[in-house]
Q: What sequence folds into this?
């Protein structure tokens, strides 16, 4: 039985608003847990987190959404996030209002945030060298040894 109006409101995602923090929206479906890993969030410190996975989206077929109460992301976190969620939008919320909204932008280079999977790379040894990866169309390339990583980037994040 229809009420003749739009029934969409009965089917919308219901996730509570956050007072202060960050909403990461338009994450590619299935990537929310990798986003939490990038941010170093596992719930052990009592963070208030809302996660929606594989929900309907106008821009993407399915999307994930992550809301983190009491935390605003650093530029380094946003840069790495852009590698696995290139279509994401970052909303900064203060007193329940979105005060900043921007799309992630893929950087040209990420330094000191990923570890090279090549055990022979100078950046993985005892040398005092920060890792450095150039961002390419389909992944990242180590600036020292040339190793290209296309999948599993989240597992290389230095914690």
A:
């Amino acid at each position: 039985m229809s009420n003749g109006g739009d029934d969409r409101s009965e089917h919308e995602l219901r996730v509570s608003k956050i007072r202060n923090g960050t909403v990461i929206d338009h994450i590619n479906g299935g990537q929310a847990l990798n986003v939490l890993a990038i941010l170093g969030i596992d719930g052990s410190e009592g963070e208030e987190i809302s996660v929606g996975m594989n929900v309907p989206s106008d821009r993407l077929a399915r999307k994930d959404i992550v809301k983190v109460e009491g935390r605003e992301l650093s530029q380094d976190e946003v840069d790495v996030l852009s590698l696995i969620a290139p279509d994401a939008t970052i909303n900064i919320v203060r007193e329940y209002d979105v005060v900043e909204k921007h799309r992630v932008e893929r950087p040209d280079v990420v330094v000191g945030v990923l570890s090279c999977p090549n055990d022979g790379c100078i950046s993985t040894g005892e040398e005092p060298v920060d890792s450095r990866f150039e961002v390419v169309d389909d992944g990242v390339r180590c600036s020292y040894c040339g190793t290209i990583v296309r999948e599993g980037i989240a597992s290389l994040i230095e914690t």
